[in-house]
Amino acid sequence: MTQSKDLDASPAAAVGSESGSDVPGAGILPFLFAMRRVCAFAAVGAATVSAIAICFACLAITWAVFARGIFGLNTIWEMEASVYLLIYAAFLSAAYTDRSGGQIGVRLVTDRLSGRASRIQRLLLDILALALFSLIAYSGWSMFIHSWETGWRSPTVWGPPLWLPHLAIPLGAGLLVVSLVVDIAIRLSGGTIEEPKAEAH
Question: Does pTM top 0.70 for this prediction?
């Protein structure tokens, strides 16, 4: 979460620089950049929830180890709950990871591109990511609706309703889809988005 300051910086730093009125689509750019700020705020909030989920998952696993190994107690919910919490952490942090450039990537080709080629390459990557996560969001929503309507529960002693972990998929993927749609619209309208300064992986 050390890169959150990049998203909370000034509007120009957070969303890139807005182009002038001579650029096609410039009239809609202020609205699109405002939407991008909203998406960035939502991404930070979702990433915060992800961090809290990871902390609770660690506590649950730690308690399970001590309960079984030291106190000889049966553990019923700890491992299953920690898995569900990590599912939320993975999906809810997706939009923030994309915004902050924290995803793992091979930059052999990217670092050699500049100007128009670099902008086209980034646009194509956003379109591919949009297609992939749209499919994930749709599949996750279908799973959530199915488990909600059928009352599907986990076949364990604890037996929580499975719509709870299934909901994480459309929430996280949906937030990333909206963010990608806004970014693609900005690029197609002639706007410029400042790329995050990601560390080399």
Answer: yes
